[in-house]
Design goal:
By secondary structure, this protein is an alpha/beta fold. The protein is built from 16 helices and 16 strands.
């Protein structure tokens, strides 16, 4: 394949904190190391005004090109349209979506700015891989500037049903932007079906078969590429985790009790208040588990400037305090609620100790925590995964205990079943889930997408 250009909202520039980079950053960096190329996007810095040109950082064979955003652009593009309009809408939280024309104008402005700054860095045969909802219009902006490179976009979030997307005043322009790419990649078949419904019934396009779509005068591929985790890494890390001080501290603090664990970014899409309600119902309905199990919810803070995120933090602090006050004892804390970050080797050890992993988002593109939990288990005594049927991972991990996160009785019952499940059944379910985790790895996702993109014909702007 020719030189690769990766574009994402944030860029993982190698530095002293490189070891903390997540799996996706590692996968993209490895692809860039293999092909050589550019990683372009926002630096994460907010300045008085947006930079007029990217800052270039050389780490051969990769060039990192990062852009500082001005406060106005940051507020309208990132905090505004991306995270207060597209994010809630794509996660089916229409009541939280804010339709603000000023924010939308800022979103388009920053995407145009990115295109103008990236275009001079491109070579004619570069392959461009764009990521996620922040920069949906970027491909169309690059086409406008004369780029006929192969271009693909992967949507890490869900893609909403047509009826939900139609609530977005700018839906037609965003849909047309998506059709500027040679490949549009989705997490699940549900997401692609929603996109195809829009193409058929709103855009009056065609579904041609063999993953091909025609709309707005362009023919392109719309395909499912389920993202995974690094093959073998989490399993190996969890095996070594018993040597860490954090592992031993957690083990000692449990005092022989069982552990249920949830690890989620603090976000309303993750269903954390509903999960707390389900755990409280679990304690009410199954009193035999009181003083025998602790639930640890790790929820690192995110987007703290967005009001909805401040509200959910306060709600969770209140709920966890109420549960502990009502059910706790002098030697037992039912809920351990933490908003700090942990290194991956520490989390792997926590997952390995937990008899139950609780992953119950209201809607999620994939949710890699579910796969990380499975990969971290001891094959001889694996824990059980309680998984929302509205997470993309549920389309693959069908041997998990699938639940409706809106139904606290359903989740409470699944918690009890997971804790009391026989070893033979846990082994059987885990073996099937682990097979899927290995087959649908991060490497498979990356290589399949890039292989398909390398075969796409060059486009006419």
């Amino acid at each position: 394949m020719s030189r690769l250009v990766v574009v994402s909202n944030r860029v993982a520039v190698p530095d002293d904190q490189a070891a903390r980079a997540g799996g996706l950053a590692v996968a993209l960096r490895e692809a860039l190391q293999n092909y050589g190329g550019i990683w372009f996007g926002w630096s994460g810095k907010i300045t008085a005004t947006s930079a007029t040109e990217p800052r270039i950082i050389e780490h051969p064979p990769v060039t990192y090109a990062v852009v500082d955003l001005g406060r106005k652009d940051y507020n309208e593009y990132y905090n505004g349209f991306a995270n207060r309009t597209l994010w809630p809408l794509f996660h089916y939280r229409m009541s939280l979506a804010e339709f603000n024309r000023g924010n939308y104008a800022g979103y388009l402005r920053v995407n145009a700015l990115f295109a103008e700054q990236l275009r001079p860095l491109l070579e004619p045969d570069d392959t461009i891989w764009i990521h996620d909802y922040h920069i949906l219009p970027l491909g169309k902006e690059l086409r406008r500037l004369g780029a006929n490179n192969r271009m693909g976009i992967f949507l890490h979030t869900p893609f909403p049903a047509m009826e939900v997307l139609l609530a977005l005043p700018s839906h037609a322009r965003l849909a047309r932007s998506l059709c500027s790419y040679d490949i549009v990649g989705f997490q699940t078949e549900n997401d692609r079906r929603s996109f195809n419904d829009y193409i058929l019934h709103e855009a009056r396009g065609e579904i041609l078969g063999n993953d091909m779509v025609r709309a707005y005068g362009r023919t392109f591929k719309a395909k499912v590429y389920p993202i995974g985790i690094e093959k073998g890494v989490m399993a190996q890390t969890s095996m070594m985790s018993s040597k860490t001080a954090a592992y031993r501290r957690l083990e000692k603090s449990l005092g022989g009790r069982k552990l249920m664990i949830g690890v989620d970014r603090l976000d309303y899409s993750k269903g954390l208040p509903e999960r707390m309600e389900a755990y409280q119902r679990f304690l009410e309905k199954f009193p035999q588990h009181r003083n025998e199990v602790s639930f640890m919810q790790i929820a690192p803070l995110s987007r703290s400037e967005v009001p909805e995120y401040k509200a959910i933090r306060q709600q969770l602090e209140t709920m966890s305090g109420n549960i502990n006050g009502r059910y706790g004892d002098f030697d037992w804390t039912p809920v351990r609620y933490l908003t700090k970050n942990f290194q991956r080797n520490v989390l792997a050890g926590f997952f390995r100790q937990a008899q139950v992993g609780v992953v119950t988002p209201m809607r999620d593109g994939m949710n890699l925590v579910a796969k990380e939990y499975v990969a971290s288990q001891n094959p001889q005594d694996p824990g059980m995964l309680v998984l929302s049927r509205f997470a993309g991972a549920a389309r693959e991990l069908e041997s998990a205990l699938l639940v409706n996160p809106y139904d606290r009785e359903d989740v409470a019952d699944a918690m009890d079943r997971a804790l009391t499940m026989s070893l033979d059944e846990r082994k059987e379910r885990w073996t099937e889930m682990m097979r899927i985790v290995d087959e649908q790895s991060l490497e498979t996702w990356r290589n399949t997408f890039l292989d398909d993109l390398s075969k796409a014909p060059f486009s006419t702007p």
